Amino acid sequence: MTEKRRTRVVLGEVATRRRPADRARADLAEQTPLGEALVRGLVRAQLALALRLALVVVTGLGALPLLFAVAPAVGQIKIFGVSLPWLLLGVLAFPFLFCVGWAYVHWAERNEQDFIAVTRRPE
How many other β-carbons are positioned within 10 Å of the β-carbon of residue 115? Predict the structure, then answer.
């Protein structure tokens, strides 16, 4: 019987071919001033979003006790046998907070997707 030797074939092109260097991701990984500026921009966008929605919550829920103090007749209104302050602050506040939380998550993810799009954008 003749013995055959095994030969190993390596594709040199595949081994040497790599993706072009992504400068934005490299800047992030190496924490260069450009990478820090990109991250700072994302943090600022997330902070601005959080502050805007916190203002919505404080205004929306904080104005109700003020309204009831200024206009006591509004606090005397009854709906389905429940006074309006109890209904608004005790029941309807939770769906309001849930919607604000959902909006925050949705817009925060959009900010992150925009950040990823900036870092993956071809130069």
Answer: 19
Residue 78, SS3? strand
Over residues 43-60, the pLDDT tens digits come to: 999 999 999 999 999 998
Please return the burial class of 88, using the count of CB atoms within 10 Å of its CB with bins 0-12, 13-18 and 19+.
Answer: buried
Give me the mean pLDDT over the 100-112 stretch. 95
Provide the 3-class DSSP secondary structure of residue 9.
coil
Residue 20: per-residue pLDDT: 45
**What are the residue boundaries of the structural domains of the chain, listed by start?**
21-120
Exposed/middle/buried for residue 2 (C-beta within 10 Å: 0-12, 13-18, 19+): exposed
CA atoms within 13 A of residue 38's CA, in its CB half-sphere: 21
Q: How far is CA 29 from CA 25, 35, 60, in A?
A: 6, 8, 41
Yes or no: say if 40 and 47 are a contact pair by the CB < 8 Å rule: no
